[in-house]
């Protein structure tokens, strides 16, 4: 009897499997950064499932399935090659963004975006709703500026783009969390002009540095020349003072007196030389007397 019952259970289970029925319900899982909804034959159930594991309802002719939706923050890069009207030149740039699904729009996403193999991917939502808006708004804003304005105001432009694109995406099921203008590719003619300008600035800086070096050298030479002039002036003034003192002290009477002293000493010397009286006023004798006076003065100073 037990054998017959076991056979009956096996046959029944086999029939259920063949017919696509499940007595216990399928085991399913919602991974992190995903939302899950159960799809029935009548459409999606109202409840959303966060990261978890559970069983679907038992089924017979038709079985429910779990449909996942990516909700994680996603990095997105949009590359542009844009004709700049004010410059009549082409310029390339990137927009680097962080975008996520708007939690308030999850039910609308399930209603409007079909799943592929049980998954509604972020990329499909982005391409469907956000990409056309982002490209259109970015081109409109960037076309208002010149290439030089873009080069000098990237942070301000990034803020303007983020505000404008974020506002435009309010009608879409995605939210813009961050945006930055990056990898700006300027036209070759602009790049060369900037390089040449940089070279000129560098050359000017080198010439300024060389000028400062020469200025310092010239100032040092001027200071040395001024110092030498001061030394020469002091020497000249000292010589002048000595000459003035000698000129005042050596008078005609003093020369006559000294002449007599010289003659007196000459008379005491063994080497006597007789000089005519008329020669006493000669220049040579005066010079001798003067020399003797200088010698005596120097000797008295030493003593």
Automatic annotation (TrEMBL):
SUPFAM superfamilies: Band 7/SPFH domain (SSF117892)
Cellular localisation: Membrane
InterPro entries, A to Z: Band_7, Band_7/SPFH_dom_sf
Keyword tRNA-binding: no
Coiled-coil region: 147-233
GO cellular component: membrane
Topology class, membrane: Single-pass membrane protein
Key word Protease present: no
Domain Band: 29-213
Keywords, alphabetical: Coiled coil
Protein name in the entry: Band 7 domain-containing protein
Taxonomic source organism: Planctobacterium marinum
């Amino acid at each position: 009897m037990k054998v017959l019952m076991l056979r009956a259970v096996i046959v029944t289970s086999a029939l259920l499997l063949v017919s696509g029925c499940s007595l216990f319900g399928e085991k399913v899982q919602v991974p992190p950064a995903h939302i899950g909804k159960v799809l029935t034959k009548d459409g999606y159930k109202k409840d959303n499932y966060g990261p978890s594991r559970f069983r679907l309802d038992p089924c017979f002719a038709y079985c429910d399935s779990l449909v996942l939706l990516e909700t994680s923050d996603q990095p997105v890069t949009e590359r542009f090659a844009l004709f700049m009207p004010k410059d009549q030149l082409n310029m390339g740039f990137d927009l680097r963004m962080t975008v996520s699904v708007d939690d308030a729009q999850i039910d609308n996403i399930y209603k409007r975006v079909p799943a592929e193999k049980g998954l509604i991917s972020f990329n499909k939502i982005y391409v469907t709703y956000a990409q056309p808006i982002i490209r259109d708004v970015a081109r409109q804003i960037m076309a208002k500026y010149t290439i030089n304005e873009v080069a000098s105001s990237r942070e301000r432009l990034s803020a303007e783009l983020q505000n404008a694109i974020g506002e435009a995406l309010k009608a879409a099921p995605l939210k813009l969390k961050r945006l930055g203008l990056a990898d700006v590719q300027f036209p070759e003619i602009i790049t060369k002009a900037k390089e040449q300008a940089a070279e000129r600035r560098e050359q000017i800086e080198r010439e300024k540095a060389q000028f400062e070096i020469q200025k310092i050298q010239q100032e040092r030479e001027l200071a040395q020349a001024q110092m030498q002039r001061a030394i020469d002036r002091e020497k000249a003034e000292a010589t002048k003072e000595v000459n003035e003192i000698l000129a005042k002290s050596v008078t005609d009477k003093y020369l006559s007196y000294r002449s007599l002293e010289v003659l007196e000493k000459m008379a005491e010397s063994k080497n006597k030389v007789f000089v005519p009286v008329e020669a006493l006023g000669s220049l040579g004798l005066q010079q001798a007397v003067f020399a003797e006076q200088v010698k005596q003065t120097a000797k008295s100073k030493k003593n």
